[in-house]
TrEMBL record:
This is Aspartate/glutamate racemase family protein. It comes from the Bacteria. The keyword Isomerase applies. It comes from Flagellimonas hymeniacidonis. Keywords: Isomerase.
Length: 230
């Protein structure tokens, strides 16, 4: 089994789910008393959030590169980033290390392609929805049509994610607001929805979405497990 390197803390709420998913998947796949060989390095999310909101992505990239180097030196065989948004600086990670890096958008695109859907909605932070580091992969490499919420709904999602979810706050009111946004996107032709923020699946149960949903945290974790056991 290969050793999985995880860059976490963005937020730690989602990082604990990554750890749980990975070990549950390893147990299911290998049986017995197996658990994942893994190394976790975790950031102070307040710093990442501050640099992100100020637009200093170079600094975010420097931090991610440093943590990737720590994983490589500690013996990780490959690395994953336990977040969607910060994949914006994935090139800083791949340039800093020689070990493979598994991109969450690639894993998500593969999962959607297997489902046969063509037109999917993307929910996440404003950075994930507006910038092309995520959607470009889905469009160019998997031929998907991506729908994103309108500006007002982006503001709602941004507020819910940064003021509530990353702080461990999950309310029925916020869940219902997200479901309303998904309903709007469904009327625009969305055949499915990408929960493109690692905390969103903790807020929105898949059986309440009303469309096929793609839990990027679980998809990414499965990709890591498959790679570790290949």
């Amino acid at each position: 089994m290969k050793t999985i390197g995880l860059i976490g803390g963005m937020s730690w709420e989602s990082s604990k789910i990554y750890y749980q998913h990975i070990n549950e998947m390893i147990k299911e796949k290998l049986g017995g008393s197996h658990s994942a060989k893994s190394i976790l390095t975790s950031v102070d999310f307040e710093e990442i959030e501050r640099f992100s909101f100020s637009g200093d992505w170079d600094k975010v990239g420097e931090i991610m590169a440093l943590h990737a180097e720590k994983l490589e030196k500690a013996g990780a065989d490959f690395a994953i980033l336990c977040t969607n948004t910060i994949h914006l600086v994935s090139k800083d990670i791949t340039n800093a290390v020689d070990i493979p890096f598994l991109h969450i958008a690639h894993a998500t695109g593969e999962a959607i392609a297997k489902s046969g859907l063509q037109k999917v909605a993307l929910l996440g932070t404003r950075f994930t929805m507006e910038k092309d580091f995520y959607t470009k992969i889905l469009q160019d490499e998997f031929g998907l049509e991506i729908l994103v919420p309108n500006t007002d709904d982006m503001d709602v999602l941004q507020s819910i994610i940064y003021n509530e979810l990353v702080k461990g706050i999950f309310t029925i009111e916020s869940k219902n607001r997200c479901l309303e946004i998904i309903k709007k996107l469904k009327t625009q032709g969305a055949q499915g929805v990408i929960l493109g923020c690692t905390e969103l699946p903790m807020l929105i149960p898949s059986d309440e979405v009303g469309l096929p949903s793609f839990d990027t945290t679980k998809i990414h974790a499965q990709k890591a497990v498959d790679f570790a056991t290949s």
